[in-house]
Amino acid sequence: MPKNRNLFSSLALWRRGVTSRAVHRVWAWAQETGAVTAQHPGRLRFSRIGTGTRLAFPQGTVFGEPWIELGDHCIIGEQVTLTAGLMPDLDLGSEPILTLGNGVVLGRGSHVIADTSVSIGSDTYCGPYVYITSTNHSYDDPHEPVGKQWPRMEPVVIGPGCWIGTGAVILPGARLGRNVVVAAGAVVRGEVPDHAVVAGAPARTVRSWDPEKGWQPPLRTPAPIPIPDGVTSEQLAAVALLLEDPVEGA
């Protein structure tokens, strides 16, 4: 009996391993096949989807795509919501409502809600679960449910080169300058100047760049050492392997 039990147990583990590998292979196929690119847009018909841009599978809610313009080499993570207009099937005019510059990254689970103009500058990186919206609920009438009151809308502009941390919220009317850092969980409204670091809810400036004095208050960590000119990607990969597998006895 113990031998039979061990045999059945081994068989069950083997079957589970085979099933697990099969599921992973199918999921990898679905991720590759279900991704949206300029060459393979699927059902989505964006105003523009640039060269090298990719929307990972599974996508989040996407509608109003004729008024959504995506630049080149953008990375849109899984379950990212991109919407133009209050609801699907509206005629929003001749110009895009939501525009992403080249090289924009939107992390997994992020939402960009553009009921009026939302512009995200080139090379802006967003962590997971960032929420960017041009619409806010109104509650003027104390007798009417908030969700039934007409919302307020203001354009949002995010300059190039920004870094927006995980879970940050960018509210209607926000205007972020160039190379702004938004801390994780921050809630941003109003204008943020170039080269500022903002944090908190509501967000406030905690560090800024002065052309004469540098960062104020000064950075507490040393600047990263840049990669020397002439170093190839193959050489960097070789160094990474050495760090992962140090020579025995070295």
Overview of the molecule:
The strands form four sheets. A nine-stranded mixed sheet has the order 2-5-8-11-16-19-22-23-24, with no helix packed on it. The chain has a seven-stranded parallel sheet with strand order 1-4-7-10-15-18-21, with no helix packed on it. The protein has helices at 2-34, 233-244, and strands at 48-49, 54-55, 62-63, 68-70, 75-76, 81-84, 98-100, 105-106, 111-114, 118-120, 125-126, 131-133, 135-136, 152-153, 156-158, 163-164, 169-170, 175-176, 181-182, 187-188, 191-192, 196-199, 204-210, 214-216. The chain is 18% helix and 26% strand. The mean pLDDT is 88. The N and C termini lie far apart (52 Å). The chain has 250 residues and is an alpha/beta fold. A hairpin with a 4-residue loop joins strand 22 (196-199) and strand 23.
Evaluate the radius of gyration: 24 Å
Beta-strand content bin: 25-35%
How far the N terminus sits from the C terminus, by CA atoms, comes to: 52 Å
Strands of the biggest beta sheet: in what spatial order? 2-5-8-11-16-19-22-23-24
- Which shape, going by the Cα principal axes? globular
Low-confidence stretches: none
